[in-house]
Specification:
The protein is mainly alpha-helical. It has 2 domains: 5-102, Orthogonal Bundle (DNA polymerase, domain 1), CATH 1.10.150.130; 118-298, Orthogonal Bundle (hpI Integrase, Chain A), CATH 1.10.443. Helix content is 57%, strand content 4%. It contains 14 helices and 3 strands. It has helices at residues 5-18, 24-43, 54-67, 72-91, 118-126, 133-148, 152-156, 185-198, 200-204, 226-239, 248-261, 266-273, 278-281, 283-299, and strands spanning 163-164, 169-173, 179-183. It has a 3-stranded antiparallel sheet, with no helix packed on it. Strand 1 (163-164) and strand 2 form a beta hairpin. The protein is elongated and about 80 Å long.
Length: 303
Amino acid sequence: MEKDLNTLLSEFLNYLTVEKGLAQNTTDSYKTDLTVYITFLVNANITTPDNVTASHLREFIMSLMSGKALSIASIQRYMSSLRQFHKFLVKDGISKSNPTLNIETPKGWHRLPKTISLSEVESLLKQPGDNNHLSIRNGAMIELMYATGLRVSELVNLKLSNINFEIGFITTAGKGGKERVVPMGEYALDRLKQYMEMSRQAILKKHSSSYVFVSSMGRGGRGLTRQSFWMIIKKYARMAGIKQDISPHSLRHSFATHLLERGADLRSVQMMLGHADISTTQIYTHITRERLKKVHAECHPRP
């Protein structure tokens, strides 16, 4: 008779205690991790370890990342527990293969990024208005960041030479100094032109500067700091009634998520974000899958 997964877990824990001589705290940690894992498998209608694939393992790790505020160290601990469990099953002849052999330890994986909805983005973009020069600058910055997915450091360090107003593109150097070209769209282009024509020199006064977005705080034509823009985002998020704690990076994440939700291909989004490895971009596909599941549950007559 084939043993169920919980029975196999009990045998594994006994093996850790009796044969490996591990301390009770250590075996309890394995038990906690693997109980969560087995619950995931059962909910996915997987009853035998030979039916577990690398895809299932990735889905499990992604479920942890979306459901809990786990650190990278915690995710790595889960992976270690899974590896030891499946290694034991193969060693004892219970399972024919070890699916964890095809899964890399998630050294560079991160928790799912915070995003805001399209309606929240629209509300945020309306907040600065155009009643003074700083509001016009702030609105242009937020619009450009959402339109291009720039990192905050790329935005505040943007130079005049990086902008091509005729074709609506910007160039920027991301991590490792790798240059990329990103389209900015008509809304961001119009708002940027408004700032350049009406407000930039008024903020600079008698100074000159190579930076696109300049400070009014007596910095002699220098660009804004990352901290200054962080405070700008916080201010307008409160005004927009956005309850979750967002940062400039939330706009970058929302840029990627909204593109994928509307059918953009992963490779194009990777290029616009400036990710060296497409696996970094793939984290956003889980967000879009979660949204599809939510829509299905809310809208389908038999969810």
